[in-house]
């Protein structure tokens, strides 16, 4: 906090503004713990000295590439520097060894091609322009030179570009540690990179700010041998957002795989007894069904190809999508009061048809499935007690089943991918890339979207 004595007439400061978050200006009067500021926007503001911050007037108009060079490393100074660099198409900025990225919301392939990777190879962090390749190269060099495993943390808002940044880090590490292999079999690093479409199909969804938001956390271990070559890999996932399976807020979407399957070729749609996604309760709670930037039909075929790459058989793929279809049908089973007190049963013939279809897709008995939804079993020391559930409780039971089935399916997919990739239990070192679950905060978030949110990273490092 700034003390009242820190400012005097003529001081350049940042003060809070309800429209622009922070606004700069010159102090024209100091009175106790308040200052009057003539802003560059020609507004005059009276602010508490405790909420004002000094402005560094020596910062170049295009900002600095490492924010440790700033005289004041406070919120308005950080945000202004990021904005200055973004305005001249510089989306990456260092804060020491931390890389901050501001999402450009467009593809920039020239920043990530092979020539750029070669340029960063073996160059000390900070000698070239800020870049994810520089961070990855630093981690790889420290692992080799110091014989210590490394980890890279990727954190930030939903839509900030964390998953894309993680892909760039993985690409560079694969470039540095990949084997030269002339065989037709795909390498470990290729399998890791090519598994992304599968994980994104089942773990990503549209949120308010992001059409392809990862709704799960991911820790990718790249395992290396003594010579620094990739010898294995493993993907650890956590914090899957299970509630999204049953509850979707407008204008968000459920997980991509549901919409992909509804947009699959006609023979696939008929096989799973699907149709328009608007007819399914787990999808039609939101008015957002289609996305301009995502073609669900093409994504379905791409996901199938990715499943082939990671070694999933046609039988396994069919089982996966049977489960996805079964969850959609399960969500359309409504309940009404049963004949007994506080009991329930499928509401009508339509609900019974969806229940029967769910049982067929799950390959279970439809009567047993109905019993499990409409009744609850309590196991005591001496006996089992069966209690009938009312319609509301049966609906909660239905949703709980859908969430746990989807969660188990996701866990199985990750396990299958890990088997296909192949782990090296005897690896010498590893580099872990932690892609933290994306957060969205609308009341307090005024930051530019970035790969690393300064406040949250500080909390993570110093808690």
UniProtKB/TrEMBL annotation:
Signal peptide feature range: none
Domain of life where this protein originates: Eukaryota
One Pfam family named in its UniProt record: Myosin_N
Keywords: Actin-binding, ATP-binding, Calmodulin-binding, Motor protein, Myosin, Nucleotide-binding
Positions of the Myosin N-terminal SH3-like domain: 8-57
Transmembrane segments: none
Domain Myosin motor: 62-463
Record: residues binding ATP: 156-163
Family stated for the protein in its record: Belongs to the TRAFAC class myosin-kinesin ATPase superfamily. Myosin family.
PANTHER family the UniProt entry points to: MYOSIN (PTHR13140), MYOSIN-7 (PTHR13140:SF761)
Name this polypeptide is given: Uncharacterized protein
Organism: Hibiscus sabdariffa
Phylogenetic lineage: Eukaryota, Viridiplantae, Streptophyta, Embryophyta, Tracheophyta
């Amino acid at each position: 906090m700034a003390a009242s004595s820190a400012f005097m007439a003529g001081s350049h400061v940042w003060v809070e503004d309800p429209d622009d978050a922070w606004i700069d200006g010159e102090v024209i009067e100091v009175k106790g713990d308040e200052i009057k500021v003539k802003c560059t926007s020609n507004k005059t503001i009276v602010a508490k000295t405790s909420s004002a911050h000094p402005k560094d007037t020596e910062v170049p108009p295009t900002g600095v590439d490492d924010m440790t060079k700033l005289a004041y490393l406070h919120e308005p100074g950080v945000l202004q520097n990021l904005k200055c660099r973004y305005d001249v198409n510089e989306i990456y900025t260092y804060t020491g060894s931390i890389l901050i990225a501001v999402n450009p919301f467009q593809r920039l392939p020239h920043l990530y091609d092979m020539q750029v990777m070669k340029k960063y190879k073996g160059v000390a962090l900070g000698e070239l322009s800020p870049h994810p390749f520089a961070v990855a190269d630093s981690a790889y060099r420290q692992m080799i030179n110091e014989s210590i495993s490394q980890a890279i943390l990727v954190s930030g808002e939903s839509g900030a570009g964390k998953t894309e940044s993680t892909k760039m880090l993985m690409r560079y590490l694969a470039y540095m540690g990949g084997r030269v292999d002339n065989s037709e079999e795909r390498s470990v690093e290729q399998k890791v990179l090519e598994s992304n479409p599968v994980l994104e199909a089942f773990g990503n969804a549209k949120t308010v700010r992001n059409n392809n938001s990862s709704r799960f956390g991911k820790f990718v271990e790249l395992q290396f041998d003594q010579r620094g070559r990739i010898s294995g890999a493993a993907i650890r996932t956590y914090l899957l957002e299970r509630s999204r399976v049953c509850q979707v807020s407008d204008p968000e979407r459920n997980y991509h795989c549901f919409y992909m399957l509804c947009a699959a070729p006609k023979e696939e749609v008929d096989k799973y007894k699907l149709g328009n996604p608007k007819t399914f309760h787990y999808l039609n709670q939101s008015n957002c069904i289609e996305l301009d930037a995502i073609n669900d039909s093409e994504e379905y075929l791409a996901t199938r190809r990715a499943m082939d790459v990671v070694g999933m058989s046609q039988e396994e793929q069919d089982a996966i999508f049977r489960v996805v279809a079964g969850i959609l049908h399960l969500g359309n089973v409504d309940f009404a009061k049963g004949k007994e007190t506080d009991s329930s049963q499928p509401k009508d013939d339509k609900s019974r048809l969806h229940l029967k279809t769910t049982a067929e897709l799950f390959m279970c008995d439809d009567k047993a499935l109905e019993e499990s939804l409409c009744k609850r079993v309590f196991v005591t020391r001496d006996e089992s007690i069966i209690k009938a559930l009312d319609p509301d409780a049966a609906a909660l039971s239905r949703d709980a089943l859908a969430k746990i089935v989807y969660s188990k399916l996701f866990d199985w997919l990750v396990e299958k991918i890990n088997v296909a990739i192949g782990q090296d239990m005897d690896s010498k070192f590893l580099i872990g890339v932690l892609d933290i679950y994306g957060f969205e905060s609308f009341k307090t978030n005024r930051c530019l979207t970035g790969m690393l949110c300064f406040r949250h990273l500080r909390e993570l490092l110093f808690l």
